Amino acid sequence: MASIELKNITKTFEKHDVIKDLNLTIEDGKFTVLVGPSGCGKTTLLRMIAGLDPQTSGQVLVGGKDVSKTAPGQRGIAMVFQNYAIYPTMSVRENIEFGLKNNKVPKAERIELVESISETVGLKDYLDRKPSTLSGGQRQRVALARAMVKKPSVFLMDEPLSNLDAKLRVQMRIELIELHKKLGTTFVYVTHDQVEAMSMADKIVLMNKGVIQQEAPPEVMYHTPSNQFTAQFIGVPPMNITYVREKQLTFGFRPESAAIGRSPQQGLVQTSGEIITREMLGSETIYQIKTPLDTFMIKSIDDQYRVNETVYVSLPEEKIHFFDDQEKRIAQDSSLYLDKIQALRGQYYG
Amino acid sequence: MGKKRVSSVIRPYLMILPAMIGIGVFVIYPIFYLAYLSLHKYNLMNPAKSKFIGLDNYADLFARDEFYKVLGNTALYTFATVLITLVLSVAIAVWVSKNTKFNQFIQAGIFTPHIVSIVSIALVWMWMMEPSLGFLNYILKSVGLPTSQWLQSSSTAMASIIFVSVWQGIGYYVLIIVAALQGVSPSIYEAASLDNASKWKIFYKITLPMISPQLFFILIIMTIGSFKVFDTVRMMTLGGPNNSTNTLVYYIYQNRTTNIGYASATGMVLMLVIGILTFVYFRMLANKVHYQ
Ligand SMILES: Nc1ncnc2c1ncn2[C@@H]1O[C@H](COP(=O)(O)OP(=O)(O)OP(=O)(O)O)[C@@H](O)[C@H]1O
Ligand SMILES: [Mg+2]
Fold this sequence. Notes:
Number of domains of chain B: 1
Strand content of chain B: under 5%
Order of helices and strands of chain B: HEEHHHHHHHHHHHH
Radius of gyration of chain A: 24 Å
CATH class of chain B: Mainly Alpha
Shape of chain A: elongated
CATH architecture of chain B: Orthogonal Bundle
Oligomer: heterodimer
Bound molecules: adenosine-5'-triphosphate, magnesium ion
Largest sheet of chain B: 2 strands, antiparallel
Order of helices and strands of chain A: EEEHEEEHHHEHEHEEHHEEEEEEEEHE
Number of strands of chain A: 19
Number of strands of chain B: 2
Number of helices of chain B: 13
CATH class of the largest domain in chain A: Alpha Beta
Number of helices of chain A: 9
CATH topology of the largest domain in chain A: Rossmann fold
Radius of gyration of chain B: 24 Å
Structural class of chain A: alpha/beta
CATH topology of chain B: MetI-like fold
Distance between the termini of chain A: 58 Å
CATH superfamily of chain B: MetI-like
């Protein structure tokens, strides 16, 4: 078990800074999810921790020890690759065993470890198979077993579920959460899927263009996003964010925060609009509503409204977020926030 | 309807007919004709006077010491050429497989002999290997090493021919192996480095198995090709000195006018030997080769 510290990390590819002066501490034993849009540098960051593609400058500390000059195999780190990177010429057993052999683990212990790990991930009957005869999910388990068997102090995973079908993905998500509970090891999990991030993380680290936007537990990140990017990246559909020209302010609200109805309702912001699209998702329905303010996505448990129907939309005061002109969210206890509330209050838009 | 059935049955055969005719005329017929010749005492001046003598040519062949000498030479040549080429080309390929400008230059350099005719190459090397005036001995002398008789001594002639063959062929195989190496997913190597594997272990547990299909392919085509070596011998030594570099195909060539039946019997034996070798390779190695 170990914490990870990145100090003033910079990574340059062909004179182009992908990551610049990044500082991050990943807590010991936590399930940390690195999330962000494609190309933001998540894989790059992970590979620097693993030592596969060392940083241009800065330090990587694992368990308080500077490993910047340590070879990948000696950092006490295991990694699950996006494409699994299983050794195709070796059987499942040999795949799992390879790291142990290289670390000179005695044979008897090795056999026992392989048996117990393969039991854990449900590969016991497949030990003598070649990877090419396995399904995607089974290969993913081989990759996991190969990582687990070394008893690493840190687990790195780069989008390990992205090649699986939706159902298996949900199942593996739960298995990974349980695995983390059982092992209690530091997990660093990379994904660009915010649903995955929300459902698995103890702590989410949200990146954009090589810069950390926010580090927080999922619920904190959802309810108090630090800026517009975070607000719109986390949550489906993303937060509605609108600029009100005559008031010169930007406010936003989550799709489920608005109330809709056939008659006007109380709220800080009240408006009405026409339903343009309607997505019925089962327990909830997502309406796209065109109001004089903007077009909003609104999520409701009520599925009775139809396309082309005009409905009233209202927003309660406590669910509204304001952003400053740096796109930062204005804290609820600041005086600026009260000014903005005042500005919006009591007006019907439409 | 019946007509339609007939045409759909016949059509595939019609389609492959041209290729089959080609194979028949240029492959099957010559083989049978070779077998036919090997059973005859053939008279070149007057083919009508040729006569069937059964297996006499074969009996004659197996009774002659020179046949065993030639067979042994060919086997030695093949074994050495294949082994040295494989080992060297893997080593060079691993060395130059990173796709940089410098490595591309080296690859091009190593490949160049392959596009030059073996006849020219043989001539150049003959000249360089000339014992008293040649470049190689000049070099050896100038650094104070003992000189060699190269092609002119029966103890070094075969080694010299093997050297030239390896030199000429290696670029081609390096190219094949480099392509194979570049086809291996880099993340497998990264996984291995995370698994704390040593360089050597990565090489024989990952690299070699990953390129085994190409190595197997090279092993087979090189064995077949080397068993049929002719031009190098013809150009450089004419089988000498003292038959020390005579090989099966050159031996056949030597007998082409004097004794066609005998030469044909040798040809049949050559075919058989290559067939058996290939079969043995497949039996022994095919399950060690990893196909994706
Ligand atoms: N080897 C490389 N050479 C040059 N540029 C690279 C290299 N690897 C990554 N980059 C660049 O660095 C940036 C970050 O890449 P990275 O792979 O870390 O993104 P990511 O966040 O993992 O994206 P994704 O979600 O698509 O996997 C990209 O702009 C990419 O083009
Ligand atoms: Mg990535």
